[in-house]
Write a structure and sequence with these properties.
The chain has 126 residues and is mostly beta strands. Helix content is 0%, strand content 47%. It is globular and about 40 Å long.
């Protein structure tokens, strides 16, 4: 059974950093692209970044370029999201999701992913 578990969220001051983790189990991670998404209260779920199954391709939403970095370690069944220079508007529940992609190798479109984790809360506040 495919399972994703996020961790690493918390409360951080503006300008701070957090590293989110997504632990995968029940499937071969190297066959799946992974996307990170977030949902703030009262807002729709939005894409943050995705990474191809091999880690050779990735796509960022415009607002996260230069601040967030996605990486993966397939041998350890882990995907990470390093978030720097956090802003209050980054406050949301962050989710990782998995699906198999071909061309393109991934996309930050929530409806395109079938398997989701339960999310981890990130709060950016002074």
């Amino acid at each position: 059974q495919l399972q994703l578990v996020e961790s690493g969220g918390g409360l951080v001051q503006p300008g701070g950093s957090l590293r989110l983790s997504c632990a995968a189990s029940g499937f071969l991670l190297d066959r799946y692209a992974i996307g990170w998404f977030r949902q703030a209260p009262g807002k729709e779920r939005e894409g943050v970044v995705c990474i191809s199954n091999t880690g050779s391709s990735w796509y960022y939403s415009d607002s996260e370029k230069g601040r967030f970095t996605i990486s993966r370690k397939n041998a350890e069944n882990m995907v990470y999201l390093q978030m720097n220079s956090l802003k209050p508007e980054d406050t949301a529940v962050y989710f990782c999701a998995a699906d198999q992609w071909g061309d393109p190798p991934c996309a930050v479109v929530p409806s395109s992913y079938k398997s989701w984790g339960q999310g981890t809360q990130v709060t950016v506040s002074s």
